[in-house]
Amino acid sequence: MLKIAFIAHDRKKDEMVNFVTAYEHVFVGHQLYSTGTTGQRIMEVTNLSIHRYMSGPLGGDQQIGSMVATDELDLIIFLRDPLMAQPHEPDITALLRLCDVYGIPVATNIATAEILVKAIDRGDFAWRELVHKYKPGVDE
Predict the structure, then answer these.
(1) How far apart are CA 44 and CA 89, in angstroms?
(2) Distance from C-alpha of 104 to C-alpha of 24, rounded to nearest angstrom
(3) How many domains does the chain contain in total?
(4) Cβ-Cβ contacts under 8 Å for 12 (sequence gap 6 or more)
(5) How far apart are the first and last CA of the chain?
(6) If phi over 0 gives left and psi between -120 and 50 gives alpha, with beta otherwise, what is residue 120?
(7) Domain limits for position 70
(8) N or C: which terminus of the chain carries fewer CB neighbours within 10 A?
(9) So where does substrate get bound (predicted)?
(10) Do 48 and 27 touch, CB atoms closer than 8 A?
(11) Weakest mean pLDDT among 19-28, 30-39, 66-75, 82-91
């Protein structure tokens, strides 16, 4: 079972809902997390149970970031709006930085999200053992 988080900027929420709906069969059985409105929108049209944190601008991105930093998350699907400035851009940058530091895959567009979800569906997520083997701070 993987721990997966969903985040979507306002203009990407419909795209996220459609994506998760299309792959609902893959997400069943995994622990799911999201920022507030994104999770609510997904739960309204699927049978998935999602632990919702605060809205991104109110701290939800940081809450998910803390899960990354404490090794409590395996994958993030974060559909960002690259054409709209975000008031909480420093939080977004910090979250993406943590994903890089801790080796957590993060999809920021639908094409990458689909590749990762198809890997989950095939059971091709052995990368997690490699991340733990070479985890930052272990051999430093």
Answers:
(1) 28
(2) 21
(3) 1
(4) 79, 80, 81
(5) 30
(6) alpha
(7) 3-133
(8) C
(9) 9, 13, 35-38, 55-56, 88
(10) yes
(11) 82-91
Could you identify the residue written with the tokens 């974060």?
78
16, 6, 52, 40 alpha-carbon torsion, rounded to 10°? 0
Tokens for 110, please give them: 């639908």
pLDDT digits (tens, 9 = 90+) for 11-30: 999 999 999 999 999 999 89
Q: Is residue 139 part of a domain?
A: no
In a domain, residue 25? The reply is yes
Just list the catalytic residues. 61
Beta-bridge partner residues of 40: none
- Buried b / exposed e over 4-26, threshold 16 CB at 10 Å, is bbbbbbeebbebbbebbeebeeb
Token pair 């601008």 is found at 57
DSSP helix/strand/coil, 10: helix
What are the E-state strand segments in the chain?
A: 3-8, 31-34, 50-52, 75-79, 106-107
Please return the burial class of 27, using the count of CB atoms within 10 Å of its CB with bins 0-12, 13-18 and 19+: buried
Write out the two tokens for 77. 């699907």
> Does 14 reside within a domain?
yes
In a domain, 41, yes or no: yes
Annotated binding site for substrate: 9, 13, 35-38, 55-56, 88
